[in-house]
Every structure is written in C-alpha cells, then in structure tokens.
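REVIEWER CHECKLIST
Item 1: Sequence provided? yes
Item 2: Single chain? yes
Item 3: Sequence as submitted:
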Amino acid sequence: MPFTPYLAGQRLTADRLNAVSMIGATVFLAYRSASQAITTGGDAGSNATSWDDVQSDLLGGWLAGSPTRWTVPQTGWWRLAGAVAFDASTGGTTRECVWYVNGSAIGAGRARTFGNTLASVPVTVEARTLSQLLTAGDYVQLVPAQNSGSNLNLATGSYRSYIDISYAGPA
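Item 4: Structure as written out by the authors:
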C-alpha cells in the first residue's frame, strides 16, 4: 500500500503540503558544549541535558529560558535521536540516558551502559532512536543518569552530548 497521509478528496492546503514536505527533515539539532554536572543516582528531570549550542531549530521549539526542553509545535510523529557523554570515571557501574516527554520517562525510552568496572575514559550512551506520536505543546528532554557515587560531568569536545529531532509524519 502506498504512503497516503491524506484521504482521497481532502483539500490540499498549504499547512498539509508543508507537513508532508517536512517528513524526514531534522527540525532540531543541538549540542551540550559546556560541562554540566549530573548527580549520582537514578534518572531525574532535574538532570535533563541543558542544550547550549543550538545548530538548528526550524520550528522554534527551543527557548533559552527552558534550555532542557524542545516543545512540539504540531501534533504528529517525531523521530528522537541523541546521546549523552560522561567524563571519565571508574566509579559506579551504570551510565544511561532516558527520553522524557512532559517530565516523565517514556516507554522504550531508556538506554543504559553497564560494566563491572568502567574504564577511566569518557563514556557515550546512545539514546534509543525511536518514533513517538506527540501532541502540540508536549516537550521532550534527554535525561542522563549515572551511579558513580558523586556528581559526574557531561563530557565536552568531540564527546559532547547531542539531540536530533526530525519530523516523521502526520498523526
């Protein structure tokens, strides 16, 4: 069956044509370039990555006043991708990142790295790339977590964390 986002007989409006032409486009791409301390323990919204190097925000979903959030501009399917990178630390056994929507972890949104002992090198945890049906006004966050026993900074430079959100199609 061919992809038909609209039913036969529906009028093609500028909004509908724009939505279809946007499918697959990266609408938000940002990095964390400065160090950010992540407290030890489980994932918590208070540790959400604060994006400080926004490369692209085509739909205006990011605001400097809420730098951890990207707000969904229109209802539809959205493709979430990203990673968090932690500075080197041999403490603890877990480094992870979790997708949050509206302040809560989402199903299938957790990625975790385990080890009996972690090497003293930066560790990058790729977020699970997934499509998510979101409603206009929802907000998305990428939340790092770790259990080193003390605060652990997000890595910078070539290891820096990133978020990449693309439009996957109408609801």
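Item 5: Key structural point noted by reviewer: The two ends are 18 Å apart (CA to CA).
Item 6: Recommendation: ____
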